[in-house]
Amino acid sequence: MEDAIRNFVEQGEAYRWSGVETKTYNAAESQSRGMSKQILFEADENLPSELRYFESEPGGHSALERHHHVHAVLVLRGSGSVMLGDHVRRIRAFDTVYVPPDTWHQFYADADSYLGFLCLVNCDRDRPERASESDIAGLNQIAAIRDVIRF
Amino acid sequence: MEDAIRNFVEQGEAYRWSGVETKTYNAAESQSRGMSKQILFEADENLPSELRYFESEPGGHSALERHHHVHAVLVLRGSGSVMLGDHVRRIRAFDTVYVPPDTWHQFYADADSYLGFLCLVNCDRDRPERASESDIAGLNQIAAIRDVIRF
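^ Those are the sequences you sent over. The predicted structure of the assembly is below.
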């Protein structure tokens, strides 16, 4: 029963949990920058979903991607913005974001703030699709997001 | 797309989200005290889980209950304690708690602090079982939890 509880720990500037492994991403392969991931609850036979914590360093961002599965996101710390479809919106701690199926999205930390968010997904899900050159050409036609997206 | 984002709002002392209904409990019927519930993400065809936010006023507590479905909990604010099986443990903001199947559990806010926590559940789940008099007699045999449980 003791391992049922994982204590939150601040490790320097980063948010960490006891007994939870932190994955950092290779920037080139992931098309993200300054991002890390911790799986707070893995899916099991009793819960068909996974709750992950993603953290971006100040100025960092997630990969530009879309997929059929949805994301249910709750910002846990800091501030930044999210590109969702053809919109960009400000987000800050405790705001929630629902990323619908097949919708381009990307999360950005402000230059002077970490952005940490919980992301809930179905355990049974498709792999993310990254933007191709023609996708990017299409996205660049949308004035509201043209200067925001990073890849 | 605009309603994909729900802004966090502090309403007096309480944590609220734009466009999310707050349910408060009748203390006698719920066997809880000072608790409210907000469903941040309802289950849908793409996500078979529900993410709820429960908040207890200072000194309040959830119902003493068990059920076959599991809870994946992340504390969002404040401090308190949790009774889980035959243990009581301190919890504070951002600690996580996994409530296994068929395990008696109860959450308590400290007397001088709100306790707010996210609780992730399978959308397909059994109803909670409340403690009967004989359950309570059994629980009262356990020294570690005898003075803590409330019903």
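Chain B touches chain A through 45 residues (CB under 8 Å). Residues 2-146 of chain B form a domain with the Jelly Rolls fold (CATH 2.60.120.10).

Shout if you want it in another format.
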